[in-house]
Amino acid sequence: VSAEARIAELGLTLPDAPRPMASYVTAARSGDLVFTAGHGPSRADGTVITGKVGAELDVEQGKEAARVTALAILATLKAELGSLDQITRIVKVLGMVNCPPDFKHHPEVINGCSDLLVEIFGDAGKHARSAVGMGSLPFNIAVEIEMVVEVG
After folding, report:
1. Mean pLDDT, the chain, as a whole number?
2. Which of 27, 55, 109, 117 could pair with 62 in a Cys bridge, judged by C-beta atoms 3.0 to 4.6 Å apart?
3. DSSP classification of residue 21
4. 1 pLDDT exceeds 90?
5. In the beta sheet, which residues pair with residue 97?
6. Is 149 helix (H, G, I), strand (E, B) or coil?
7. Could you give the dihedral angle defined by the CA atoms of residues 21, 25, 26 and 30, in that order, rounded to the nearest 10 degrees?
8. Cα 87 vs. chain centroid, distance in angstroms?
9. Local structure of 65: helix, strand or coil
10. What mean pLDDT comes out for the span 49-59?
């Protein structure tokens, strides 16, 4: 099953691909790799998930923010590549969680992104990953995630 068909099977909707907010691009290709800029949790309806996970948001809400962010990244990749079916492997995910200093559940939060990638891409969605806490993120977004994918 193609990635695009799997997204439809899961009943998911990709948001519009976000636009850069400064002097950068949302995706840059080098050979067979595409590197995305950091993306935040922007839903298809244009709303954004904000707040500190572990303070204003619980872990499940943070996990949902990471899932929403994965969809935003996939929207960017679709705009860059023309089709998500060009992706042969998710290589690396860096997940940053807006949280208080004593928060300890960063991996659980970023699982929202990682689990979705495996749901869509199967084994090709399994990736190397870092999940870290941040004292703040732009516009108080709950998570920021960047990704490296291999294309064929």
Report:
1. 96
2. 109
3. S
4. no
5. 133, 143
6. strand
7. -170
8. 15
9. helix
10. 98
d(CA 140, CA 48): 10
Pairing verdict, β 128-134 and 87-98? parallel
Q: What is the pLDDT of residue 80?
A: 97
Spatial separation of the C-alpha atoms in residues 132 and 45, rounded to whole Å: 28
Which neighbouring-strand residues pair with 57? Answer: 53
CB 100 within 8 A of CB 52: yes
pTM: 0.96
Residue 84 to residue 52: CA distance in whole angstroms = 31
Structure tokens at 142: 């709950």
Distance CA(62)–CA(128), nearest Å, equals 20
DSSP per-residue letters across 90-124 = EEEEEEEEE--TT---HHHHHHHHHHHHHHHHGGG
pLDDT at position 57: 98
Q: Which residues pair with residue 146 across a beta bridge? A: 94
Alpha helices (H) along the chain: 3-9, 59-81, 106-121
Residue 21 has pLDDT above 90, yes or no: no
Mean pLDDT of 61-85: 97
Amino acid in the structure at residue 97: V
In this structure, which amino acid lies at residue 115? D
